[in-house]
Structures are given as structure tokens and as C-alpha cells.
Write the C-alpha cells for this entry.
Amino acid sequence: MNIDLKGKKAIVTGSTAGIGRATAEGLARAGASVVISGRGSARVDEAVRQIRQAFPGSEIAGVAADLATVEGVEAFIAQVPDADILVNNVGTAHIRDYNSVEDIAKIPDEDWLGLFQLNVMSGVRMTRHYLPRMVKKGWGRVVFVSSESAVNIPKEMLDYGMTKTAQLAVSRGLAEAVAGTGVTVNAILPGPTRSEILGDFMAKQAAANGITQEEAEQGFLTALRPTTLIQRFATTDEVANIIIYTCSEQASATTGAALRVDGGVVRFVA
């Protein structure tokens, strides 16, 4: 399969590292012009420099903005008013050692609301601007990077799971709203991935316990994701591959879907 995205402009939010960075690189490899997004200008500028170096001749731009805020989204849109592809990837999680209802009850409002603003409302606000423009052109791709935690709710990250489930509702509803227009909206559900957030957490756990990162990851899987079929963390490129396909012309019949790249963690979803 030859994915050719020449002539398409793609926005990838949260793309200075991790899954977002791998997605931005994959879209550039496929010929798209890509807009890198991050909160700080230093990281955005460095990511743009590195991707330009890796893909000479590619059109790569960057915008630094806090997409968890209305003002940040407005500032981004002012610099990039139009796009053919929008990958709503930006997000974070609070990884805690919570095992009881007493622990969960301690999660403060600001954690719930902060995650909702970044993980959910950033995508809502960005899509609210770009989706109608895609419909007018008769072609577009919107992708929400959700998580297997959307359907396999983790008690240690309940607030995170809530936001990922919300993304599924938003993506499905939007897909139905643009039915028959040539625009698709989908959600991607990665499982445990060696991305910046979880990868760094595992590296710290490994250092604290005097073990390798691979051993720390195996301990995580055994304790919290024992149903994994690949029995390892996925790479960011493995997740990015399905995102890039979903953004392609070849994926024109795929919309309103929750596409799993979870390593088989989720046994069954009705």
C-alpha cells in the first residue's frame, strides 16, 4: 500500500514527542505538509528542526500554544486557519498508585477538570474550527487519539479513563454529523506504549528498583494489563502507523470507528 498525502496539510497536536511526534514524522514521510504543536516554543522549534532534517524538502511548521485553553486554541487557529487532516493527540495522565475507593475519592477537582480541558476540550475546540472547512471541501480526516483505557477503565487513572471515554463519544457523534460528506472522524485506542509519559515513568520505576526498563514494563503488564497478547509495550511508530492509515485516502470507508492498537489488551468490546 502506497500512502500518498502530497498536497494535504496535517495538524498533529502534542507532537514534539511520543505518539504525536511519530505521527507527524509518518505524515511527512507520506508527503503531507505538517504543523507541529506543543506548549513551549523551544520544544516545538527543536522538533521542527529535527523533522525538517529527517525529511528534506518537506513543509514543516510549528506552533507553540496551550491547547488546554480557549486562548491557546484561538492563537493556534490564527496562525493555521485551514487543514485537511487534524490529529487530536495532545493529552496527559496522572499515574498514581491508587487501589481503593478512598484513594480515588482523594482525586481533586482540578485534576478531573484539568485533564478534561486538555484531553477532551482541546480536540473539541480544534475540531469545531477545522471540521466545517473540511466538509465544505468535500474531504478531510479527523482523528482522536484515545486509549484502551476508554473501554478498560483503569482504577489507578480513573480521571484519565473518563477523558478517553469522552473522546469516543465525541468522535462517534461527529462522524455521524458529517456522514456522506467525504470527511471521516475516527478514534484510535493505543494500549501501553513506550511514549514520553509512560516511558519516562517506567524508566524512573526501573531506576528506583534497580532493574531494566523492559523488566519494569513487564511488571506493569503483569500487574495491570495481564491480558496483553503481544506481551510488551508497543512502540510509538506502531501506533502512528494506524493513525497515518486512517488519515489516508485508502481509509475512506473507515469512519465512526474506535480502532484498537492495544496489543490485544481488551478482550472484547460490544
Summary: Residues 192 and 233 are 5 Å apart (CA to CA).
